[in-house]
Amino acid sequence: MAAGAAELRTLWRRIDSVRSTQKITHAMELIAASRITRAREAVEAARPYAVMITRVMRDLATEATVGDHPLLSEHEELRRIGVVVISGDRGLAGAYNANILRRADRLVEQEEQAGREVRRYVVGRKAQQTYSYQGRDIAQYWTGVTDRPRYADAAEIAERIIADYSAGEVDRVWVCFTNFRSALRQVPSVLQLLPVRERELSGGEGYAPEYLFEPSPRTLLEQLVPRYVEHRMYAALLESSASEHASRQRAMSNATDNAGELIEDLTREANAARQAAITTEISEIVSGAEALSSG
Description:
elongated, alpha/beta, Pyruvate Kinase, Chain: A, domain 1, 5-stranded mixed beta sheet, 5 strands
């Protein structure tokens, strides 16, 4: 086989390979785009509950003093800080996982510089793998959650966090998540989960005198505070999920475009090689004809 023909076959083989990859990235782009829509719908569906539980808690707070609730009380000394890091379970999402891990590292560095011990709670396989590789301790991790978060997942995570905070294992808890602003903008963010700041329960309107409570407003509020913490965790999971899908959709879109450009470059190179091979064949034929005629 001539060298030109071998080169041409190699180029067409590469073009076929890139086209196959392009089909995969385009399919992943479409899947991610559809999941963004579902994730945003989940965020909107959860919002009425958040509004109502916050309103009820604020109104109840006007009827009872809850400053000594274990989830509202600041610990006297900040020695150990809990940091919940929400990453993804899968890659191919651009800089999504790297960005949230960098934001978490900055927070951890600030706390450690202040002389506090940090305890990590990890959501998502990517953060778990990174911290395990780096030899960092993980108090607990959860995987298989971030693609389609359920309220039960948030409740399970919050239950462990609440238990550790109530037992004094940690004195403050932060959540590092990615805030979905738009399909083009997702912002790594930090939220204080515990203790719940009392100002979050201020501004209630109270209840008219004809309302009777069973059990008491204080008891009701004490039971609602853990639900409030669960929902804030759920909201962080939903925002992170939407952000991950948006990042993946954008990354796959860029990969599809890059594959198209590479196909164009390889096609031009293959056409040039084909033309060169044809020119060489014509030259050989003409040379052979001249040699025969001169003989």
